[in-house]
Design goal:
Chain A has 248 residues and is of the alpha/beta class. Chain A contains nine helices and ten strands. In chain A, the strands form two sheets. Chain A has a six-stranded mixed β-sheet with strand order 6-7-8-3-9-10, sandwiched between helices. Chain A has a four-stranded antiparallel β-sheet with strand order 2-1-4-5. In chain B, helix 2 crosses helix 9 and helix 10 packs across helix 11. The radius of gyration of chain B is 20 Å and the shape is globular. Classes of the chains: A alpha/beta (248), B mainly alpha (312).
């Protein structure tokens, strides 16, 4: 039997009268690369929020490697191995890049509660932070405050933050949003190079990026899963073409 | 450390030590107050400048601590060595309760802290059988620990100076620790901090209680300086003034709150000697700070320096 990294059952999130996510069940195998696609408003980001604990679902359950985490708060899910990035860049603008990474590194261990010792006196945090920046090509920006670096570099940092919480399952919410074609390619290569012991669930609008990385693709439309399958099958499916690209 | 910085610190240390001999009782008293209120402002700034929380209840911790010390020493003859820690403990325990404010954020947090502050003020005024009402508690002696007795304002000045320096050094480590970095992270983005594994409400709660403890220490120093405490210490204007000192001096720094305290206390002393409406002047200073030096005098100095060095 293949181990399930993520198993969401009948998840729903209702805002007022609107069901943004309307009974979604999702199973992602350990090590898999799953891409979620769907038009704007399909409920992709809300589904992410419900799985990672940013939002509490109206109904349904979420399991991480067989463990029910539906009632666990977000920080606990992170400690248990969920990492995520945000669609709208969510990094610490007033801190340097290396401080950003330090926050990610100590966030999942007990050292975040230490108040009698300076961060800079933890050589392993420092070296891991520098390695983390190196891995996403930001080593030369380590000691620059985030507000002085470009948007593209912030997207790279966004990814580095999630990677440094030691995730077993990584949720990437449009990692390439707003980037130039060359920057997209760079991020896509980084994601493709991730080791297979990290399961990746990704929302992506760019069909070429999405279908290039995915083992399987799940298509969401109006809060429901309308199709799930191999990338080629999804690309060929007429219904998907209709909702995604419009009739034509 | 750069040479100008080392020189600056050297001058500050020499000036602080020499002050009672050079400045006389007036300046010694004023600077002692500056240290005490600077420490109170620093406690406010742990939340404001590091964590991004604007508390307007810090006079409560300050006053509860001061009242505890005064009542224990005056009515029960409890020695300083027990009364002073009891004051800090009482203020910190109140911080544990008032930390409930953290169930809210933003404007609601500010409003709840104001409401909490008025509860303490109301108790101080109305529960006169215990607090002494408007008169408060008088005849607080100078502190004495073991055989070591403080006998003059000059000696007390040095005691306060020593405490302030120790607090400043400790605070410096605190804000650079993983915990302190976490506070700045929460100020930047609480949502991201949660996704990085931080239990942000507990992080802020711990900071709140710690901040209350520092405010309580300032309350202890205050009551031994003032030799009495009345409800004014617990009043809303004290909470506002402490925040104002931090903002005028520069939030997110260590020296800022002390400089701000010096400016606010000094101006008030000077202006009130010839102008009745000195509160209006304080308001104008605050407005000018927010408009033209939002990062306070420390930030302003930094900007002027970088402009100057660019011109060269």
């Amino acid at each position: 039997m293949i181990e399930k990294a993520i198993e969401a059952k009948d998840l729903a999130k209702v805002f007022g009268g609107l069901a943004a996510v309307d009974g979604v069940s999702l199973e992602v195998a350990a090590g898999e690369r799953r891409v979620l696609i769907g038009p704007n408003g399909a409920g992709k980001t809300t589904l992410f929020h419900c799985i990672t604990g940013t939002l509490h679902p109206t109904r349904g359950s979420v399991s991480l490697f067989g463990r029910d985490v539906t009632r666990e708060p977000e920080h606990r899910r992170t400690a248990l191995g969920m990492g995520r990035t945000f669609q709208i860049t969510n990094v610490f603008a007033d801190l340097t890049l290396v401080e950003n990474l330090a926050l990610a590194i100590v966030g999942t261990d007990r050292r975040k509660w230490v108040l009698h010792r300076k961060v800079e006196n933890y050589p392993d945090v420092r070296s891991q932070a520098l390695e983390g920046l190196e891995a996403v090509g930001l080593a030369d920006r380590a000691f620059v405050p985030v507000r002085l670096v470009s948007y593209g570099e912030r997207r790279q940092l966004e990814l580095a933050l999630a990677l440094n919480t030691r995730p077993k399952v990584l949720f990437l919410d449009e990692p390439c949003a707003g980037l130039s074609p060359s920057e997209r390619l760079r991020i896509a290569r980084m994601i493709a190079a991730l080791p297979r012991d990290i399961t990746v669930v990704m929302i992506e609008h760019d069909m070429d990026v999405a279908l290039g990385l995915a083992d399987r693709v799940t298509v969401l439309h109006q809060g429901k899963v309308i199709l799930e399958g191999a990338p080629e099958a999804v690309r060929a499916n007429a219904e998907v073409r209709d909702v995604y690209f419009g009739h034509g | 450390m750069s040479a100008p910085r080392a020189l600056f610190i050297l001058i500050a240390v020499v000036a602080a030590i020499a002050l009672p001999y050079v400045g006389g009782p007036f300046w010694t008293g004023l600077v002692t107050q500056m240290y005490i209120f600077g420490l109170l402002a620093l406690s406010v700034d742990l939340l404001l400048g590091q964590a991004g929380l604007f508390s307007l209840t810090h006079a409560s911790f300050f006053a509860v601590s001061a009242y505890t010390v005064a009542i224990l020493q005056v009515r029960y003859g409890v020695p300083t060595v027990l009364a002073a820690p009891a004051g800090i403990l009482a203020g910190s325990l109140l911080g544990l309760v008032f930390g409930l404010s953290l169930r809210t954020r933003g404007v609601y947090f500010i409003l709840i802290t104001i409401a909490f502050g008025y509860v303490i003020w109301g108790v101080a005024v109305r529960w006169s059988s215990f607090t002494g009402g408007d008169n408060g508690v008088t005849n607080v002696p100078f502190p004495s620990v073991g055989g070591f007795e403080i006998a003059s304002h000059t000696q007390y000045y040095y005691l306060v100076l020593a405490v302030i320096v120790l607090c400043g050094l400790g605070y410096r480590v605190l804000i650079r620790s993983p915990f302190g970095l976490g506070l700045r992270g929460i100020k930047g983005s609480e949502t991201r901090m949660k996704s990085l594994g931080y239990r942000t409400d507990m992080h802020l709660y711990a900071a709140f209680v710690l901040s209350a403890a520092i405010a309580s220490l300032a309350g202890v120093l205050y009551v031994y300086y003032n030799r009495f405490v009345n409800p004014v210490a617990s009043s809303f204007p004290i909470s506002v003034e402490a925040a104002l000192m931090a903002i005028v001096g520069g939030t997110g720094t260590i020296v800022g709150p002390f400089i701000g305290a010096g400016v606010v206390l000094g101006l008030r002393n000077w202006v009130s000697s010839f102008f009745e409406m000195h509160h209006a002047i304080m308001g104008a200073v605050f407005i000018a700070t927010v408009l033209w030096a939002p990062d306070g005098l420390v930030g302003l100095a930094g900007r002027l320096r970088s402009r100057f060095s660019k011109k060269k």
